[in-house]
Amino acid sequence: MANVTLKRIAEQLGLSTATVSKALKNYSDISDETKRKVRALAEELNYKPNSFAQSLRNRESRIIGLITPEIVHHFFSNIIKGVIDAAEKSGYLVITLRSGESYETEKRQLRLLRDKNVDGILISLSDKTINYNHITELIKDGTPVVLYDKISKLINCPKVIINDRMAAYHATKHLIDSGCCAIAHIRGPLRPQTTIDRFMGYKKALADHGIEFCEDLVFETSHLSFEDGYEIAGEIIKCPIKIDGIFAFTDLLAAGALHKLKENQIAIPDEISIIGFSNWFLSSITSPALSTVDQPGYLMGQKAFELLLKDIENKKQGRPSTAEIIEIPTQIIPRDSTRPGR
């Protein structure tokens, strides 16, 4: 059966298509009786609006793009859920793509979303992204873009972030307050702003508490995985400096390190204390349970969509982007992998 159109409803009721359209949209200049008749017939005929035609008339697709480095990842999966829940409430469909921490994949995905005429794009930069022309050109062409979590200060657009430097400072301070004085830091390459800021927060906490920074206590990894944390813990065990605390860039790294230390009968937290970052589900079920920094991904996803929606509306009204920055608060979640503060 052919789709029911506004024209068919109008012909059956002896009305104009404009009147039928207004009645279905509850315009105030249409009488209640006319609205009742139009809605009753529309329901009887199982009328469904042509969303594609509407998008052409309104010059909007009601679709946004979401690019995330990973999908099977507690923090990013929470962000995705936050974005989708917020988008659905505003009538938007979300195309979710995974860059896999690849710069080339990220560029291809942005081209794909542009070709799909999405109304806006949310993106967390891949760890390999060091050139931002593919994003700045998109912004110059008028596509609303919001960066979240992994951002660059060189891109002028709205952003949703946490204060990574302050969060890392407090994580390191938590170890210092529990009596640690030789604290290792496990991190990724210094490319994304998040890695840089957490490293700087770690160094600042050491300096503020009279602990000399030592390059030999910084361990770099490329994948930020459980396996990498496990391997680096092996290096920590062999380190000539007696390390008594570990601040890991992610909970996965921290969990891997914890597992290796336990295999080597190193008492946690009495010999070495460990704190992670993100507050993944796994952090509460490791043995001992992992102290961590709570990073609220769901809220970040909601706020990222809200910023994008605001920018989409600005574009409709001919207003410039606000380049607004929203900072999501974090907190330390102390568990059994660290000693109580002194």
Structure description:
The protein is an alpha/beta fold. It folds into 3 domains: 6-49, no CATH class; 61-161 and 297-329, 3-Layer(aba) Sandwich (Rossmann fold), CATH 3.40.50; 164-295, Response regulator (Rossmann fold, 3-Layer(aba) Sandwich), CATH 3.40.50.2300. The chain contains 12 helices and 12 strands. It has helices spanning 6-13, 17-24, 32-44, 51-58, 74-89, 103-115, 133-140, 164-177, 193-208, 226-238, 251-263, 297-316, and strands spanning 63-68, 93-98, 120-123, 145-148, 159-162, 183-187, 218-220, 245-248, 273-275, 292-294, 325-328, 331-333. The strands form 3 sheets. Strands 2-1-3-4-5-11 form a 6-stranded parallel sheet, with helices on both faces. Strands 7-6-8-9 form a 4-stranded parallel sheet, with helices on both faces. Strand 1, helix 5 (74-89) and strand 2 (93-98) form a beta-alpha-beta unit. Helix 5 (74-89) packs across helix 12 (297-316) and helix 10 (226-238) packs across helix 11. It is elongated. The relative contact order is 0.12. The model has no long low-confidence stretch (mean pLDDT 92).
How do you describe this structure in short?
By secondary structure, the protein is an alpha/beta fold. The chain has three domains: 6-49, no CATH class; 61-161 and 297-329, 3-Layer(aba) Sandwich (Rossmann fold), CATH 3.40.50; 164-295, Response regulator (Rossmann fold, 3-Layer(aba) Sandwich).
Tags for this model:
12 helices; single chain; four-stranded parallel beta sheet; alpha/beta; Rossmann fold; elongated; six-stranded parallel beta sheet; 342 residues; 3 domains
